[in-house]
Queue: 3 jobs
Job 1
Amino acid sequence: SRDEHEAVAGASHFLEHLLFKGTRRRSAREIAEAIDAVGGEANAFTSQEYTCFYARVLDRDVGVALDVIGDMIREAACNVDDVEAERRVVLEEILMHLDSPDELAHSLFCEAHFGGHPLGREVLGSEASVRAVGRDDIAGWYQRHYQPDNVVVAAAGNVAHDHIVAGVRHALGEHGAPAPSSPVRTAPGERGHGVAVRSRPTEQTQVVLGGPGLPRGDERRWAVAVLDVALGGSMASRLFQEIRERRGLAYTVGSEQAQHVDAGTFNVFAGTNPSQVGELVEVLRAQLDDVRQQGLSDEELARARASLAGSIVLGLEDTGSRMVRLGRSQITGTPLLDVDAVLARIDAVDHDAVAEAAQAVLSGPFTLALVGPVDDVDVTALAEHCAAA
């Protein structure tokens, strides 16, 4: 979605939907029936940097999956009636997103943090952009980007490489139109900071506090991942223990990071009673400052490393996770490390590495996003917690 012009914001996600509406030889129902007939599932998702179409089937039916997904990518119909029908579906998805205060708070954080940069836009687009985008806009986006030379195919499970290659050649063809030129992407400039609020008549106020993170290729990402686990990634984490267990300020609390090719974010989040927003933000900022200044204890560091390593290994028991890992590595140009190499990098994270990572992602200035009842919130006082360390 970051490659879209503002006038067609949401086109990538819209097209993700539209490819399931039919091809030149299959209707939407026939696409669904082909996968259902083998007990499989097919779906898709769109991120800021790529769209993924995937299917999960028995190993004997991999040819069916390749044929159906390949047909969708090569021969999408993009009929006018389908565009109008799916426009209504996408608008409902946007409304559903707007009705989810926690999701909306994270979107507001990105919008405020990245300003006018495309990374600050919602992948879904806006109600206005989705209503305005035309069939020709969608079809043009499809024709420019959905070419065989621009596709990465990843498979995991009981598969033979040569068999997959043959199936891909059959489904997508040896050659298509020349691959489109790589989009010209600009890295985000100076990031926004301060307080962004959106009033909603909810019982809780959702809070997101964060700042710049690391791009995907930065070697410090291993230390940031360990820091993320220690700070808010588990029930034993600093934020969970301090904010939920000790103070009872929130039910949901945690931390997260997002990595892009040329940028990243790191934030902490929680939902609380509107009367407690000031206290919650103060405690969140205090925890960030404490970790940045004092680091982690030996016990915290060891536990976070072990937790991260264990979650990665357990995740690789799922073929879907393996598939996404393979595909994402290829399409983003990130080196694919084997499991032993990943675990070695995690194990190598020491106190110095965590300290360097904390300085990089916890020094601010910060962006604070609030969604919920905000009439009684002292924005000026909260803005003080967004200042750089």
Job 2
Amino acid sequence: MPRRNPCILDATIGKVGRCNPLHFSGDRALNQSTRYGIIGCGMMGQEHLRNIALLPGASVTRIFEPDDAMAARSLALVPQAQRVASLAEVVMADDVDCLLIASPNFRHAEQLREIAALRPLPLLLEKPACTSLADVQALAALARDYPALIWVAMEYRYMPPVALLAQEVHSQLNTGPVTMLSIREHRFPFLVKVGDWNRFNQYTGGTLVEKCCHFFDLMRHLTQSEPVRIYASASVAHNHLDEQYPLGTPDILDNAYVLVDFASGQRALLELCMFAEGARYQEEISVVGPQGKVECFVPGPGRFWPEHLGEAPTPKLVISPREPKGPRELDVPVDAVALAAGDHNGSTLYQHQRFNAVVRGEGAIEVSLRDGLAAVVMGLAAQESARTGQAIDLTRGEYALGSLLNGV
């Protein structure tokens, strides 16, 4: 059983408390520097730049960003970095120790293959790892021989309220073994990206890959089991229907229900709505076992919270035991510096702390390429289920996880 964190609620703690299971300190001295090369400096890439700047001993030395406006914004954040004209110039630079890929989804697989052929450095790969089953197979084969670490950037694992929920669930202290898991995300529509690549399934892998691979990863992480069957019902109801591009009207889903059966007998449900940004909380996660229920509530990006409503909501955890009855609430405030550096409740910084430590030889990979590819397969299977109206078997056929990820 995992070691119990002192933040975990039990009967000795009052009904309302405060805790952040992840901690940021900008004062810790490092024995060595870590120099980053960045591939892709759009909206998410710039969030990574702001967070790397907070890490003691870390610096960005090279960036590859084809869009001039995005490159200019990035260099304003890291003026010491040099903009180069190709991925190869980043990878082969003598002053680069590790890499970050934050390019559009459909570029990830080809860029990872190019890196593997040139100079396989430690790598932080933004989600989703790729966008097609063919790329899943190619990256699985690549992973078997890649000599350096590959960490897939699943930021949601490192949101403090979600991290605390995971500690609670894995301890089984207040729930017992997981029986049911529900994840709800009610959020804003997809934002505008360079070239509008995020408007079409062929570039994103589909909403259930691009947006929801985070949640499929959380399902595997929380249940500690592998999915065997997935069923989705989804549609394009409201978003982007008035937009026109050379490819036509956007085809990305804006709402979905996804039901997942796991090998352990556990079940998980995802509810996604991308036209509900008026909600107080953006994510709500509920886990139920024979002894009780644990929930976490996560607000959306603070920059989207209306000023006239005052301060943005504080994330919280709620534990509701069956006996003795009585829900207990815990506020989970996020460090202000970490919160201001991005749109993911501080998680990008906490993730970078761990990745940086592994690059320096401390700790171990927490989100492997196998984890990232499994989430992509689940997303692609969910997209296919939504298209056909049929449940997809993840144990056999073209979506069989075991076959696709064999040896990874």
Job 3
Amino acid sequence: MLLLAAGWVGFRAYQAATALQEARDVASRLDDGLLSGEVSATDLATAQRTTARAAAASSDPVWRVAEVIPWVGTQLHTVRIVSTSLADVMDEVVPPLVDVVGSAREGGLRTADGRFDLTAIAAAAPALDRADTVAAGASAAVDGLSTAGLVGPLVDPVTQVQEVLTTVAGAARTASTVVDLAPVMLGADGPRTYLVLALNSAELRSAGGIVGAVTAINVDDGAVTLGAQLSTRDLPELDEPVLPLTDEELAADGARLGRWVQDATMTPDFPRTGQLVAARWVAAVGGTVDGVVAVDAPAVAQLLTVTGPVTTSGGQTLTSDTFVAAVLQAPYESTVDDQGAVELDRTFADVAASVF
């Protein structure tokens, strides 16, 4: 009986190890294409079959009993945890992520008039919330495994699966958070106004760079429109800070933190930056501000790889390759006087508006 059990476990271990290595390779390919939406139905189905085979081979009762055997049990336990975790992710995490990324790329989250489809976004929430839970559990289970004491052929697959599941869990958490917050943020319960700060990292501050321009984005029931757009020339230096500053802030940054909108990023506390810029905006423009977002040139350049080139009001076409130099280098090469400073501010405001 013992020989029979040992033979069975050996056979199943061979099946599981083979399937696990195949699953590792498939999972790595899916990981590369997951966020880009380049995962085909065929690739996903192949991954699901492969991971299911590995999980089935490592989950029978004889296998579980054999996990108590010293040394051998460590190998078997590791294979089972990795196999079942991958199978769970392929069944419950990857499909909803692929669906939502695909829908976003194909315009499925927009209505015919260009609004965000808040109903469709909300409908995706249950599956993505479940995906978040499953992915976090799978990633934690595999991360808890030690490769010390494993046989050589298992070390690389386990390490690679740990990396893949960390990435997938992060994507699932992000997607879940976005669909949970998006309806309200996009005006499901009434109009909202957000400020987008274009940060100029050619002049560094604690938050990344000085504020080069401020643009309002208005949202209402899924409709997103560009609002007022101000350069720092439109928000000149104040005689007194726009909000009372603490003793700590005055000691660290001085009154400039609240007097110059460019220097609102002197503090590493971005929520405080948001308060200062929002107060300055309300004083100059009026209305209310519901949130503040900051982007710098490298981040916008990455966005342009998805949106494609933009053309400024002056006719300049900016691509992901030319954006950073156009915003952070070229304006300074031509900024030699006060008029040049005005042009720099206009460039930031123009680019911020063009991207959105």
